[in-house]
Specification:
Layout (H helix, E strand, L loop, with lengths): L7 E3 L2 E9 L2 E4 L4 E4 L2 E2 L4 H12 L4 E3 H8 L7 H15 L9 E4 L3 E4 L4 E8 L23 H13 L2 E5 L6 H12 L7 E5 L9 H9 L2 E2 L4 H10 L4 E5 L5 H13 L5 E6 L9 E4 L14 H4 L3 H14 L8 H10 L4 H8 L7 H12 L12 H14 L3 H9 L9 H9 L5 H13 L4 E5 L2 E5 L2 H12 L7 H19 L5 H9 L2 H12 L5 H17 L3 H17 L4 H16 L6 H17 L2 H17 L3 H17 L6 H14 L3 H14 L8 H23 L3 H18 L2 H19 L2 H17 E2 L3 H15 L5 H14 L6 H14 L3 H18 L5 H14 L3 H18 L2 H17 L3 H13 L8 H15 L2
Parallel strand pairs: 10-14, 10-15, 11-13, 12-18, 13-14
Antiparallel strand pairs: 1-2, 2-3, 2-9, 3-4, 4-5, 6-8, 7-8, 16-17
Helix pairs in contact: 1-2, 1-3, 3-17, 4-5, 6-7, 10-12, 11-13, 12-14, 15-17, 15-18, 16-17, 16-19, 19-21, 19-22, 21-22, 22-23, 22-24, 23-24, 24-25, 24-26, 25-26, 26-27, 26-28, 27-28, 28-29, 28-30, 29-30, 30-31, 30-32, 31-32, 32-33, 32-34, 33-34, 34-35, 35-36, 36-37, 36-38, 37-38, 38-39, 39-40, ...
Length: 959
């Protein structure tokens, strides 16, 4: 039966030819496999194999036919087919001794044995485009042998204990059991399960970075562990810390703090030794049950023992082995000799392609020093595992042995091309590597997973440590770490180029998966035996990943080290400029805008000028200007922006030109030049639209669509367009939400949506946006927005009548001032002054507005001068100075008109008209307020226009 597909579009669903078997649906045209309606991750090769087997259900499909289907016209080692079939069976959960879906026909091929139904069914388009989740999910495990009771007990223990640790020897199966228990416990976790693979880090100092990366916490938390605890506090999540033993001090510290914190989350750790917290619930994982030698069992009796099941299954996968009665005693002796250790059993089973079970018993006795039939006392299990790995290693060819050691340089998963690059320096050819990888996989010394059209390999933690020892003992491998760092450099320099065209989610998924190797390469390159020049280039190459994923605290530490090193050795000035620019941006989002930030930007400008690079000169000037705007140095920011925009006149293709224009317009708006600012912002807003596709070009378009709407609402609102301003701000928030741009959304909330909602008096919107910013701070721990969220939350409570909220407003403002986030601080203090006045606290209102005016004048923020004068007039009136108050209102009115701030003009006119009405001068009040009110064409439900309309109605009614 050959697949022929007819596709009929029906909205967002399509009718597809579908093959159904068990809980699975195979959709050939979409290259999609569904399990209970959910997509199953599967590589392209594995899919081709499955499609051919399903279409020829019940027929023997030869190895040659399968190889031709998956690798047409290509000669490959037989191990490639075995690895892909192994991966395919795991995707189907078909790993038991008696297969359900795919049967092996020894030395001939494979046969699909399950019932298959072909039909035309509707499949949703969106299934093929699932976005990768930010949370590091546990790998899916199926076909686990002999751990049912331990898995159930662990899941049960998690119900009553916040911290459970699975302990046991290396190779005992702690990771597999923990993942399976997590899957059982997952329905109780409202916020999911996070898997933290600590085997990918060698330095305990990276423990916190590994945690925040796995949890998807972005930004620049001052302390990673504190950020993790804050993140977990409001969640109901299970965190699985796997392989704690080699970073035990850091794991113990985290577990201790986790247990003293108030959280509904749970912690499941795996370690060779306990973590030792007072409330830790220990569960020791024992060996797999195996029959005692001499039991004279039949196949049916022997296969009931988990150790035998695992041995037979592994041998069948890699050697087409078929279990027979004559082998029962030998297999029992092997499993017993290996202490029932799963990894050791798999290593032994992998040798059945070369030896019979009886020969294996002899080899184990000779090489491992065991007396399998009956020994006095048990060999410690970890020693058993190491001895088994050592025995397996000694059976390798010289090339395989060398390759095995070299692969220990990889912290995470790698592909054949990575291995070829590293192995070249040790004298291995690409053929040696490809053949060796296949051999190591079939011998269970290396794990392989299908990813896309290629295989990804990975050493288990126990085998990696052993392999590293062998690498250090091999003189030919002395350059392996240097080659590894060079390979990582090539990958991340490639990532910079691919960033320009690869779909953003795919790019992030591809390169975030390599962050463990980036960390390892940087640690080696910065170390005593490393390569300083290579370290600098590695740090530069990592900038795009750190920026794209907002891993800012890790970036900051690496960039500071790299820039300091770059200043001390001979180094290209453009590399220095790139490091300084990236450091400036990472510090920009820190809790406090320090002098180090200014120094980084000044360094970047100087290095870019020395390098003669106009692109980075402009980037550095714009970055420094944004920093100056944040700390309230408006005139100085304008000076640098004039230089940045002048560079654009020389080359309009500079990538930072739009940011330079935006920053220039923003700075001039703060300086009170609203008309000049509005022309540029309107042009930028008309230039960038919301694109529908997922390309990088369109992602950049969306980013600029968002960023111009950080500033335009501020100007539009002052010019009397309250509704338009609110719409622009909401557009930015929603566009960032659709794209998952949480940093951009926080910017849109803090700079546009929240201020506009507060000034418009829209408390429902204010509540909605503060909640969204609060959620964002969980996702992206950008420290600068924490006091901003506190400020607007407190303003909301104050406006709803909470008398205590005014002190929280004051505290948030003090924190902003301490952190040097001084932009708009005058308007924040004016709102505090108004809050004090509503409570009759006149002296405190006076202090607040005096500070506000001081900041406004010192910072050159003319935009809010009329509003501060208006608030000060209210204070004067409360202090019993009506004439001074009226005079100041007249000045405020002239100031608002001078800069074209219609909203402030309306506010001042309303206050002045109210004063005149109270003094019996109603006609004058009406003559003042009416034409100003009539200038407005929108925003009639805002607080300002409602107040003006109400005042006019009262004045006319009593006239």
């Amino acid at each position: 039966m050959r697949a022929t597909t007819e596709t009929l579009q029906t909205g967002r669903r399509r009718e597809e030819l579908t093959f159904s078997f068990g809980p699975f649906q195979l959709v050939p045209r979409r290259q999609l496999l569904l399990f209970d309606g959910h997509p199953v991750k599967m590589g392209g090769r594995a899919f081709e194999l499955l499609q051919l087997l399903v279409q020829r259900r019940g027929e023997l499909v030869s190895k040659n036919e399968l190889m031709e289907a998956a690798w047409p016209g290509t000669f490959l080692h037989d191990s490639n087919l075995k690895v892909n079939m192994w991966s395919l069976r795991r995707s189907l959960g078909d790993t038991q001794v008696e297969p359900v879906y795919i049967a092996t026909v020894a030395r001939r091929g494979y046969k699909f044995i399950a019932d298959v139904q072909a039909s035309i069914g509707e499949i949703g388009d969106e299934l093929a485009h699932a976005e990768p989740a930010s949370l590091s999910r546990p790998p899916v495990v199926r076909g686990i042998v002999g751990r049912e009771a331990e898995i159930a007990d662990t899941a049960q223990a998690l119900i009553g204990n916040r911290h459970v640790t699975l302990t046991g020897a290396g190779g005992i199966g702690k990771t597999t059991a923990a993942i399976a228990a997590a899957q059982v416990f997952a329905p109780r976790c409202r916020d999911g399960v996070c898997f933290v693979d600590l085997a990918t880090i060698a330095d305990p100092m990276l423990f916190g970075a590994a945690l925040v990366t796995a949890l998807g916490i972005r930004g620049n938390p001052d302390n990673n562990m504190t950020a993790v605890l804050d993140y977990l506090r409001s969640r109901q999540m299970l965190v699985v810390l796997d392989n704690c033993e080699h970073v035990l001090p850091a794991a113990i510290m985290f577990a201790g703090r986790f247990m003293t914190d108030t959280s509904s989350s749970r912690l499941l750790a795996t370690s060779r030794e306990p973590l030792g917290t007072p409330a830790e619930h220990l569960m020791r994982l024992g060996s797999l049950g195996s029959p005692r030698p001499g039991s004279a069992l039949t196949i049916d009796q022997a296969i009931k023992f988990p150790g035998v099941q695992l041995f037979v299954r592994a041998a069948a996968e890699w050697s087409d082995y078929q279990f027979v009665d004559d082998d029962c005693e030998a297999v029992a002796r092997i499993c017993h000799a290996l202490d029932g250790l799963p990894l050791a059993i798999e290593l032994a089973a992998a040798q059945l392609g070369r030896f019979t079970p009886r020969q294996l018993v002899t080899l184990l006795d000779q090489n491992l020093g065991f007396r399998a039939p009956g020994i006095d006392g048990a060999t410690p299990r970890h020693e058993t595992l190491m001895a088994t790995i050592d025995w397996s290693f000694k059976l390798l060819s010289q090339r395989e042995a060398r390759l095995f050691g070299l692969l220990s340089v990889f912290s995470g998963a790698f592909d054949a091309e990575d291995a070829v690059f590293v192995a070249e320096a040790a004298g291995l050819t690409p053929v040696d590597v490809v053949t060796g990888l296949g051999g190591l996989v079939t011998k269970s010394l290396l794990n392989a997973q299908v990813q896309g059209a290629s295989l990804r390999y990975r050493l288990l933690d126990s085998t990696r440590h052993y392999a590293a020892e062998r690498r250090l003992a091999d003189a030919a491998s002395r350059h392996a770490l240097h080659r590894h760092a060079q390979r990582v450099l090539a990958l991340f320099e490639q990532s910079e180029e691919e960033w320009n065209w690869r779909e953003p989610a795919d790019w992030t998924h591809r390169y975030l998966a390599r962050i463990a190797d980036l960390r390892a390469a940087l640690s080696w390159a910065f170390g005593e035996e490393g390569d300083p020049a290579l370290a600098i280039r590695l740090a530069v190459a990592g900038i795009t990943l750190w920026s794209e994923t907002s891993i800012l605290s890790e970036a900051q530490a690496r960039l500071e080290t790299a820039l300091s090193l770059a200043k001390s050795i001979a180094c290209d000035d453009l590399l220095r400029a790139k490091l300084a620019c990236a450091l400036g941006w990472s510090l920009f989002y820190a809790r406090k805008l320090s002098n180090e930030n200014a120094l980084a930007w000044l360094d970047a400008i100087a290095f870019a000028r020395r390098a003669g690079d106009v692109e980075y000169q402009q980037r550095a000037l714009v970055g420094f200007a944004f920093y100056l705007l944040q700390i309230g140095q408006i005139p100085r920011a304008i000076t640098h922006l004039e230089e940045a925009t002048a560079l654009a006149d020389r080359d309009r293709d500079l990538t930072a030109t739009s940011e330079a224009d935006r920053a220039w317009a923003w700075a001039h708006a703060f300086a009170g030049e609203l008309g000049k600012s509005r022309l540029v912002l309107d042009r930028l807003a008309a230039t960038y639209s919301l694109a529908e596709s997922r390309s990088r070009k369109d992602a950049n378009e969306v980013y600029r669509f968002i960023t111009v709407r950080l500033n335009l609402p501020f100007v539009a609102w002052m010019q009397g367009q309250a509704e338009y301003a609110a719409k622009l701000a909401n557009d930015a928030v929603e566009a960032a939400d659709r794209g998952g741009h949480w940093v951009s959304q926080s910017n849109a909330l803090g700079l546009a949506a929240l201020p506009i909602s507060l000034e418009n008096g829209n408390l429902a919107a204010l509540e909605h946006y503060t909640e969204r910013l609060r959620r964002n701070l969980d996702r992206e721990r950008i420290s600068r927005w924490i006091p901003v969220e506190r400020y607007f939350s407190a303003c909301l409570r104050d406006l709803r009548g909470d008398l205590a909220a005014v002190e929280d407003i004051r505290a948030a403002i003090e924190e902003l001032i301490e952190c040097r986030f001084l932009m708009r601080i005058g308007s924040y203090l004016a709102i505090l002054s108004r809050a004090y006045l509503r409570q009759g606290r006149i002296e405190e209102a006076r202090k607040a507005i005096t500070r506000a005016i001081h900041h406004q004048e010192d910072q050159g923020e003319r935009w809010c001068r009329s509003e501060l004068q208006r608030v000060e007039a209210s204070v004067l009136l409360s202090e019993g100075e009506p004439l001074l108050a009226e005079s100041l209102l007249q000045q405020a009115l002239a100031e608002a008109r001078a800069i074209g701030a219609k909203t402030f003009e309306l506010r001042v006119a309303t206050d002045l008209a109210a004063r005149w009405i109270a003094a019996g001068r109603r006609p004058k009040a009406v003559r003042l307020l009416t034409p100003i009110y009539e200038q407005f064409s929108e925003g009639f439900e805002t607080h300002d226009l409602l107040a003006a309309a109400c005042l006019l109605e009262r004045a006319r009614a009593s006239a």
